Please model this.
Amino acid sequence: MVIVPKPDALTRPYWDAARAGRLVAQRCNVCSRIWHPPLPSCPACGAQSIVWIPLSGNGVIYSHTIIHHAAHAAVADRTPYLVALVTLDEGPRLVSNILDCPMRAVRIGMRVAVTFQEIAPDIFLPQFRPLEAGVRS
Model:
């Protein structure tokens, strides 16, 4: 069983971009704050003048943990698995998986790049891979 996001009016631009292989986030036209996940107004100043901007998809691992006891039945058969908090070069942080890298090789500060994985028809999930040579499995 896979937990599949359900795009709505607020998140549709994010999921449409992911399907096209692009990572985007919202930016406030008033204070220039960039954030994720999508919100109806700026978390910094409250303005509702928001645009979607492309992101590089590059960042660093800020933190990570290995999950041994799944919190949801949909991922119970995948334990253990690694969850990382990735700080994108543009500032926002995303919770994600790290692909093509042994769990023991993942470390804070590791440079990563986005990749997209189709998890259901027309739903592509941003994931990350290490940028460093010799780290991939």
Q: What stands out?
A: DSSP finds one helix and eight strands in the chain. The two ends are 25 Å apart (CA to CA).
